[in-house]
Every structure is written in structure tokens, then in C-alpha cells.
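Sequence, please.
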């Protein structure tokens, strides 16, 4: 299941969605009949502002970059995300061991903790730019530049990452 969150502000007695384009892009990635769970929390204005910025970046990745790649490859955005995490995020394979005290049986499970949700905004920016470069160079899929407000870095830094 994908994670998606959006921020609302109460105005005139109604909740107003702050990132409607991001919300619409997310909805486009859903399959017919796919269920979505919504949870509401409150937060300080500072945490809301930082969340909006990172959520916009997340929405750009899922609602634009993966959608364009999916059109070209036929893979789902979820499968593309798994592949991009495997390709670009550090290997975090872990071994979790269980021991049944009753039978003495041991069970070892290999896990891969690579998750883009664990990344700082700076690392997430680099991750998205690596995906965009891969899409362009390997697949021939060009993605439009995001709104400059999505990122915290200058255009000069974006060019350095792509090089």
C-alpha cells in the first residue's frame, strides 16, 4: 500500500485542500475499486509547511515521474518505485532471527529496509533526480521540471546531480 497524505486548512467552516494538483495526481495512480484510508491529525504551522513541501515532492514523484514511466514501460507505479528503491537507495538488508522457546526451532527472515519515506528532504531530492535521469537516459522518457517550490535546492544543484 502506498502512503499519501495531504494538508487541509479550515476556512469558513470547511476544510480546504492545500495541494489539489498533488491530490489529483495521486488519485490518477489508483486502480478502479482500490481502497484508500484517510487519517486526520493536527499540527503546528511550521510542521504543516515543511510537510507540504515534502509532500509536494512526493506527489511529483508518484503523480508525474512514475506515471510517465508507467506509460512507457507498462509497469505499475508501485513496481517502478520498488525497482528505483532497489537501484538507487543504499542496501539495508537485515537478518531478523526468531527462536521458538517451545520447540527450539529457529527462523531467519531476510528483510530489505530500503524506503524513500526514511529519506531527508535533501536525500529525497537526489533520489527523484536520479530517477528522472534514469528515465531520460535509459527509457527515453522526459519528465517536466517540478515547480521550484517543491525543492529546497537551486537549479544549479539540480544540474550537478544530473551530471
Amino acid at each position: 500500500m502506498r502512503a499519501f497524505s495531504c494538508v487541509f486548512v479550515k476556512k469558513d467552516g470547511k476544510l480546504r485542500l492545500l495541494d489539489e494538483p498533488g491530490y489529483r495526481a495521486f488519485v490518477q495512480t489508483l486502480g478502479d475499486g482500490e481502497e484508500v484510508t484517510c487519517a486526520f491529525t493536527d499540527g503546528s504551522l511550521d510542521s504543516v509547511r515543511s510537510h507540504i513541501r515534502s509532500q509536494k515532492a512526493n506527489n511529483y514523484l508518484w503523480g508525474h515521474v512514475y506515471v510517465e514511466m508507467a506509460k512507457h514501460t507498462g509497469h505499475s507505479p508501485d513496481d517502478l518505485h520498488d525497482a528505483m528503491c532497489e537501484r538507487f537507495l543504499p542496501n539495508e538488508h537485515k537478518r531478523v532471527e526468531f527462536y521458538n522457546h517451545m520447540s527450539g526451532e529457529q527462523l531467519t527472515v531476510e528483510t530489505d529496509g530500503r524506503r524513500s519515506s526514511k529519506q531527508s528532504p535533501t536525500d529525497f531530492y537526489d533520489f527523484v533526480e536520479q530517477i528522472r535521469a534514469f528515465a531520460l537516459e535509459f527509457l527515453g522518457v522526459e519528465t517536466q521540471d517540478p515547480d521550484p517550490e517543491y525543492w529546497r535546492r537551486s537549479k544549479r544543484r539540480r544540474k550537478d546531480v544530473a551530471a
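The mean pLDDT is 78.
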